[in-house]
Amino acid sequence: MKATPAVRPLDDLLVIDLSRALAGPYCTMMLADLGARIIKVETPERGDDTRGWGPPFYDGESAYFLSINRNKQSLTLNLKDPRGRDLILRLLRGADILVENFRPGTMDRLGLGYAALHAMLPRLVYCSISRRTSAWIPRRSPFTRDRPSSGSRRWRSRA
């Protein structure tokens, strides 16, 4: 008897992943686990920040990077270069979802902000995961300042 491949709920979705580090890659990992095709875009200079996170390392690669980016395809693009921007726009024309976690304003400066992309691609779901909103936008966002302002230090100490 021949086995029928399982159909996963997101098998028909294409997600362009411009995120790095924690929240964005975790989000797209879950989408990939549910069947979405993920194309992760990394910078040509160094790739994703987490490629060097460790230990542990597996065959010289960050175990964290490998686990959080499983089931994803990847490519490198310089989004500041017009050729890179043109290529990402071509990819987005066939995509269902864009996930990014740059600092607020970065995507706008690249010409890839919500308003610009919505005007070109109104059906694209634009997911922006940011640690800073409203009056907090201008402030840099190290973990040491985020934890007290979010109250996470209090609930973490109760564990």
UniProtKB/TrEMBL annotation:
Superkingdom field: Bacteria
Q: Name one GO molecular function term.
A: CoA-transferase activity
Provide the alphabetized UniProt keywords: Transferase
User: Disordered: where is this region?
Assistant: 140-159
Q: Does the keyword Transferase apply?
A: yes
The answer to whether UniProt assigns keyword tRNA-binding to this entry is no
InterPro entries hit by this protein: CoA-transferase_III_domain (IPR050483), CoA-Trfase_fam_III (IPR003673), CoA-Trfase_III_dom_1_sf (IPR023606)
Return any one Pfam family short name. Answer: CoA_transf_3
Question: In its UniProt entry, what is this protein called?
Answer: CoA transferase
